[in-house]
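Weekly structure sync, notes
Attendees: PL (lead), two postdocs, one rotation student
Agenda item 3: pending single-chain targets
PL asked that the sequence for the first pending target be pasted directly into the notes so everyone works from the same version. It is reproduced below exactly as submitted, 124 residues in total.
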Amino acid sequence: MRALTRAALLHDFFGYDWQSERHQRYMSRYSGWQRVRHMHAFIHGAHAAHRAGRLFDLDQRQKDAIASHMFPLASWPKSSEAWLLTLADKMVASREVGETVGWHVKGWYHRIVPGQRSVRGGKR
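Predicted structure, written out during the meeting:
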């Protein structure tokens, strides 16, 4: 349980702003398939595992769990800790994306149909 908790806390400890101008310049060095392979979703697990391993005393299972949490964009999870971390990360990301999409759809709806506000459980 301790190994899983440590890996979960450090799984996004990659140490750079993937939306910054500096990262965009880094990405501009690549094109085609190489550019795809260097995108944040593909590399941040390995960067986080390397950085966390340097700064904290992690064992190999913890580093592997961190590195593979972006499966299938990263390597295949090899341990139960890695699988649990991967699945938990997918669940949280799915919820975040769902909430964001819902927020945007609600905003678009209110722009298309002005004055329509939903009131739960009551009359208008």
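Discussion points:
- Residues 29 and 80 are 37 Å apart (CA to CA).
- The longest helix spans residues 80-112.
Action: rotation student to compare against the earlier draft before next sync.
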